[in-house]
Amino acid sequence: MKAPGPYVAGAAGPETGKPDTALPPWGETAVVGRPLPRIDGAERVSGSAVYTLDLQLPGMLHAAILRCPHAHARVKAVDTSRAEAMPGVRAVLTASTPGAAIPWQLTQKGALSTLFDPHCRHEGEEVAAVAADTPYQAYDALREISVEYDVLPFVIDPERALEPGAPAVHEGGNRQAPPDVYERGDLQAGFAAADAIVEQTYRTAVQVHTPMEVHGSVARWDGDRLTVWDTTQGVFGVRSQLAQVFELPLASVRVISHYMGGGFGSKFGLGKYGAIAALLARATGRPVKCVLTREDSFLCVGNRPSNVITVKAGVKRDGTLTAIEARLTGPVGAYPSGSTSAYLVADLYQCANVRTEETDIYINAGQARAFRAPGFPPCSWALEQTLDALAEKIGMDPVELRLKNIPTVSQLRKNRPYTSTGLAACLREGARAFGWSEARKRPRGKGRVRRGIGVAAGMWGYAGEPNATAIVKLFADGSANLNTGASDLGTGTKTVLAQVVAEELSIPLARIEVENADTGTTQYAPASGGSQTVLVNAPAVRAAAAAVKAELLAIAADELKKPAASLVLRNGAVEAVGDPEVHVPLPELKELGRREMLMAVGTRGPNPATKIALPFVAQFAEVEVNTATGEVRVVRFVAAHDSGRVMNRLTYDSQVIGGVTMGTGFALTEQRVLDRQTGKMVNANWHDYKLPTAIDAPADITVVPIDPRDTECNTTGAKGLGEPATIPTASAIANAVYDATGIRVADAPIDPMRLVALLAARDRGR
Ligand code: MOS
């Protein structure tokens, strides 16, 4: 089975990493865990935070990108002469511009494409770019570029894509690779041992990331040195790719991303917009800003691919799962995505006999990319509805059925034990908070509006890249600076990491400044994603802060003529245990004043050598279904999460509420719609692509953190939250819709049209 997501930016494998100082686990914490608002909240909401898109540099030009309007075409000729003569135009790039033939879509088999690939495999592929004095001039100039296309037959239906004679997205056909097969145990014996078997085919729709901040870059050359401000989840990954593309030493490329407005997986690595900005900046000798339009961002920066998942599963009367078989076909779009959708089938529940077979298919549409728990929500959609159907067949409470099959080892990873498995606690505590047993007894309603409840469990499958470094500086006045390469996607990373410094050094959060996500001035951190940001960076920060603390206490011990072991830091002062006389505020420590600054480097230690640390989740939904209109309202939602230690209760809840909202969209409204006649996306905008708004998201979301006090996962006890928050949401909603209506909606989203059609079909059958 492939990896759960393409997250690893550096070379470090999961069990490597520099040793840290092996700090003992925290006991009770004073600052960590508290519901503290974001330290940069005021900047973010007031507009004073400078995002990449806000950046204005002297002499800066604006780029616009010409995109292929066809689902499949070959560029025969491009005439840019009229565009070049337009007012304000400073440079035009096409495939034939010297230096523009940059290999793109790098795989082990080589590059599948180029920056301006004349073979356009989906609507929106880049054909040419313009830099002009203003964005308006740049877009005006695009209209003066004439392109001669050889329009090709296209394929957007994955089943058709595998038929003989189907248009080939790539040479060699539309099957991306031989099917990825995973097997354990004896499937036949497993099904033979089952008392009940269910089988069903589930389908999910393409979901588009649509982060609040669209993708873009600003590039500036100073001689042979390149600086790029980028909307990225990981500055170091972008730096590596820019260095490779422009054949520069890593040291000569600086990538900065101080503020970020969401990525959800669509902002890993160098975007074509970044390479185009750098090329245009080099050609013009001026800084260049290249920002996508909102519409382009629906077409060209990735999506969560659709899936067709057939699950067959068997269970004994006592609830023991005997066999699970899943066949998955994922149209990945025009290029590979590099992740799996089968993970949950093989690892969420204890089951001896499992087989998954996954086939990825090329079609003429925008490419699949990592998207918040890549592969997991579609897999959950199929698996968790299957569990629900099994529970009904054997007459067992669906919570009970799940509790019967809780694993304590990762069956996909040679049965390595988990450092902690909070899954059972998530189910029990979540059910209690939801009032599950009582709610199951309530009538579902007799009129048009029916109520129903549903549960779904989940886990995440990526444990994080351990390689991260941080620097903490303590100044003479007792204020501090934290230096980390991590991008803060808007989730509160800076705040949580500053809390770690505040915890160790016992200084107020307001006295800590954070410097982050700049390859020129900050330390290495892997990309923020894969739910690894906190659990990878916080231990490095803690190690740095603890080292500063040790040095500070040594200084104080000298000065106060007390053993260092008897001294503690409390409220910005040195105190002595058992001696209330001793209270020296940090600014009064003479040696600290003389040195001006104490500084320490912290690194993240390796992941546990023999165990695996992963987060778990159980979510519960109550829905109201209008059987006349097909409308579904999520009236109540409980999300119970074992993500280890709660680092900040406010950002924790925000993360869960965001994940549940995103999952609600996946369940009920979101889908990329391609026109069958043209292969073009017909809803590439925020009006027609139905994201849940504030009135669609569940108004009543209760977050139940489960903290198993994991002392083995890392030195902070945090296990990652961003992705688990959205994994089972849609499945819980689908199960609730079934409970309300008796209709198993196998195809997502459960939109009113689909649901009324299913209700009508059932009523006709009566
Ligand atoms: Mo992600 S898909 O971890 O941003």
Structure description:
It is a single chain. With 766 residues, this protein is of the alpha+beta class. Helices cover 26% and strands 25% of the residues. It is built from 19 helices and 30 strands. The strands form 8 sheets. A 7-stranded mixed sheet has the order 3-7-1-14-11-12-13, with helices on both faces. β16, α9 and β17 form a beta-alpha-beta unit. The radius of gyration is 27 Å and the shape is globular. The two termini are 44 Å apart. Mean pLDDT is 95; it is low at 9-19. Dioxothiomolybdenum(VI) ion binds next to loops.
The total count of strands amounts to 30
Helical segment count? 19
Q: Bound compounds, please? A: dioxothiomolybdenum(VI) ion
What overall form do the CA principal axes indicate? globular
Low-confidence stretches: 9-19
Question: Main β-sheet, in a few words?
Answer: 7 strands, mixed
Strand numbers in spatial order across the main sheet: 3-7-1-14-11-12-13
SS class: alpha+beta
Mean pLDDT: 95
